[in-house]
Fold these 2 entries.
Entry 1:
Amino acid sequence: MSVFKDLWWYFRQEKKNYIAGVFFLLVVGLLELYPPYVVRLVVDEIKQQTLTSEKLLQWLGVLALTALLLYVLRFVWRVFIFGASYRLAQLLRRRLLNHWSRMSPQFFHRHRTGDLMAHATNDVQAVQATAGEGVLTLVDSIVFGGLVVAMMAISLSWKLTLIALLPMPILALAITYYGKWMHERFRTAQAAFSDINDKVQENISGVRVVKSFGREEREKASFMTLSEDVTRKNLAVAKVQSLFGPTISLIAGIAFFLAIVFGSRYVIRGEMTIGQLTQFTIYLGLLIWPMLAFGFLFNILQRGRASYARIRTLLAVKEDVQENKGAISTPATGDIQLNIHSFTYTEANVPVLRDVNVFVKKGETLGIVGRTGSGKSTLFKLLMREMDMVDGEIQIGGKSLTDYQLSALRFAFGYVPQDPFLFSTTIAKNIAFADPKASQEEIEAAARLACVHEDILAFEKGYETVVGERGVTLSGGQKQRISIARALLMDPEILILDDSLSAVDARTEEAILTELRREREGKTTLIAAHRFSGVEHAEQIIVLEDGQIQEKGTHKQLLANSGWYAWMYRQQQLESLIVKGGGGG
Ligand code: ATP
Ligand code: MG
C-alpha cells in the first residue's frame, strides 16, 4: 500500500475525479447487492405460491432498471478514475523528458538508451495501472468485498457466513505468496526487456556497420537469444499469474460447497428460507470478483511500487552542470581565458587535461592540433560547460563560465561536433535547426559559406531533400558541411569546429576557411584539426600531447621550433605531394 502513499500528491491533485470515481464505484457496489435480494423475494413467493404474474413483471422491471443504471454508472466511474490515471502517465512522461533534456551528454553516456526507453514506457505504464486499476481493485476488494460480507452476515446468517468464509485465509496466504513470487519474476522480466530494447536500438542505429561486417547472422542469433530470454521470463510471470484464477475458483468452490451443505440444513430446520439461501449463494458468487481483485491489487501495487521507485531515482539524478542563482542572462562574449589545472572524467582516474593555460582574444582564431586522444574535444566540452571541472577556471569576457546562465552560454557557441548528427527531416530544417524562423535566404547564405550550396542544389528536391535516419543518403563531407552551415546560421560569438573538415578535400577546405575568415571578422573561432592546413591561418596554435600543451605559437613560429608540429607538417606536405603526383601521373 506504500505506493498509494507515494502517489498521494497525485490523488490530492486529482481529488475531485477520484472522489467522484470512488463514489460512483460504491454506488455500483450497493446497486449490485440489490438484484440478489429481488431474487430472494421471488423465490420465497414461489415457494409460498403467492407470486402473481403482475408482481413478477414488476420485479423484472426493477431488475432491468438496475441493470441499466449499473451499465451507465460503470462507464462513469471508469471515465473519472482511468481518466485520472492516464493523465498521471502523461505527467510522468513529460517530467522524464523535461528532466532528461536538462541532463548533460555525460548522463547519456552513463545510461543506455534502451534502458531509458523501458523506463519511459513500461515503468510509466505500471504506475498508471496503480493509479487506475490499483484504486479500482482496492475499492472493489476491500470496500465492495466487505459490503457483501456484511450483507451476508447481518441480513442473512452470520453463522453461515463464517462457515462459508472458512477457506478464505488460505486464499489470502496463497495470494500473498504468489504476489512475492510474481514480483521477483516481473523484475527479471523487466530487466530482460531493457536488454532487448537496447539491442534493437543499437542494431538499428548501427545497421551499416553490422551489414558491412557481414554480422547480420550473428546479430540475429544474439537477438534471438535475448528474445527467447524475454519470452521465457515473461512466461515465468504469466505462469504465476495464471495460478491466481484456478486457486480462486478452487477456494470459491469449497465455499459454495460449505454454503450449500450447511445452508440446506438451516433451511430444513427453518432457520432460513430457500429465498435467503439463494440470496446467500448469489452473494457468495459476487465475492469471487473482490477476491480476484484482491490478488490483482497486490500484483499491481508490487509493480507500481518498483516502477515508481525507479522513476523517482531517475528524476532525482542531479544535473551534472547546475546554474548558479543570479547568473547572467546576456550571451557570453569577449576574450576567452582557459586555466585548466587538471581535468579528469568521472569514470576515469587519470587526468585528460593538465596545465592548459590559453588566452584567446575576442575575434581571433585558435587552432588546436595533437594526436588522437590528446584532449582536443575534451577542451571544447569544458569550454561549452558540458561538464564542470573542479581544478581550474574558464572565463569568457572576464567572467567565469559558472557566472553565466546555461542558455547564455549555449547561445554564444556555434558548435560543429566531430561526428555530425543530422535529424531525419529536410536539409533546410537541419540547417535552420537553431532558428526555425530563419528565411530561405539566410539558410542558403549559411550553406554557401559552408560551400555546400551547390551540393544541395544537385539533389532533385534541393533544400527540401529529406535526410534519412541519421542522414544515410549524404556523404560524410556533405554531412559535415551541412552541420557547419547549421552552426554558421546562428552567426555565433564563438564558433567551434571540432575536426569538422576532415571529410572534405583540400580545395573545399581552403574555400571554406577563406569564407570563414571573411565572414567571421571580429568573432572568435576555435578549430581542432588533424590536417594542419585547417589551422595554418590561426593567430595562435596549440599542440596538445597527452592533455598538456607541448608547443604554442603561430604557424611560422611553430615551424621554426622544429618540434612535433614542424615534423608533422612536413609529413603532411609530403603526403599531399604524393597524392597530387599520383593523380597527375
Ligand atoms: P581525436 O583527435 O581522436 O578526436 P581528442 O583529442 O579529441 O581525440 P578527446 O576526445 O578529448 O581526444 O579524448 C581525450 C581522452 O579522454 C581520451 O583518452 C579519451 O579516451 C578520454 N575520454 C573522452 N571522453 C571521455 C569520457 N566521457 N569518459 C572518460 N574518458 C573520456
Ligand atoms: Mg576529438
Entry 2:
Amino acid sequence: MAPLDTGSADRAEILSVDALVRHFSKRRAHPFAKSEVIRAVDGISFDLREGETLGLVGESGCGKTTTGRLVLGIDEPTGGTVRFDGKAVSGMSAAAWRDLRRDMQMIFQDPMGALDPRMTVAAQIEEPLKIHGIGTKDERRAKVLDMLAAVGLPEPIRTRYPHELSGGQQQRVVIARALILKPRLIVCDEPVSALDVSVQAQVVNLLADLQAKFNLAYLFISHDLKVVRHLSHRVAVMYLGEIVETGPRDALFDNPLHPYTQALMSAVPVPDPEADHQRIILTGDPPSPINPPTGCRFHTRCSYAEAVCAEKAPALKTAGHDQRVACHIVDGTITPRRTAAAGG
Ligand code: SF4
C-alpha cells in the first residue's frame, strides 16, 4: 500500500459541512395515513482540505450518497450548512451553482450510465468546456488530448463511442470529463464498485496519481474498505444518517473505537493468515431511517449495549489517536461488557 501523508492539517480547508440534515417526507399510502419522515442525513459535520481524501463509509442506506449529493447541491439540505472556500453554498442561485461546478465535480458508480451513448469520447470530455465557454475549438481539442493522456487513454480512442469501450476505459472517460474544468473537489460515489476486480486497482491508482498531480480533494464514498484504506487520509463512518466515528485512516483501521467501526473493520481481510483476527458478525439489518432507534441508533445491534444506550444519544467526543467517537463506552458512561445483541 502506498504510504499516505496523513499530516494534512496545514493544508487549506476547502469544504466544511456543519450539522447537515436531509429529511424526506415519505409518500403516504392513502390520504389518512400518518405522514412519515425518512431521516437520511441527521446532523453530520466534517471538513475536507486541499489535496486530501476523506473516505465516507457505512452500510447501504446509511446516508453516504445523500451526503455527496448535498455537498454538490444536487439536493437541498433540510438544515445545516455546506461551505466551500468558507462561503455557504446551500440555497445559492442556479447561476451561482453553474460557476461553482467548475470547482466541484462528481464521479458516479456506473460509468456507462454517466456517459451519453450518442457522443464520441472527445465530444463528452469537451462538453463541459463548451458549456462554460472556455477556449477556442483548437484550444479545447488540445485540452481534450492532454486530458486523455492524463487518464491513461490512447489518443485514437477519442473517436469511439462509450459502447465500444471497456468498463475501465469508460470510467477513465468519466474521470477525464470531471477533470477537464480543473475542479478542486471531486465527490467519488463508489467509483470502482461497478468495475471488474482486475481493473479496480488501476482506476484507484489513477485517482491517487491525479490527486497528487492536480492537488484534488476527494470525498470518497465507498463500502469497499480495502479501497478506502488505500486512498483515504481520514475516514468518517456513518450509521443511520449519523457519523459515529471519524479520524485518521490508520487510527480507524488499526484501532477502531466505536463498536460499529470495529465490526466493519473486522470484515477487512488481513494478508497474514497467522494473525489473530476475529470477524465480528453484526446481527440483523440496519433499522429503518423512518423510525431510528432512540438514544444510540446502533444499540439494537451492539453487543455492548446497556439500558442507557437506548435512552441517551452519545455525543462525538475526542478519543484514541485523534479520533472522534460517539459511544457511551468511549465517553465513560458505561464500561465495556459484552451483552447479547451481536456475536464475535
Ligand atoms: Fe454500543 Fe452503547 Fe456505544 Fe451505542 S453507545 S455503540 S449501544 S455501547
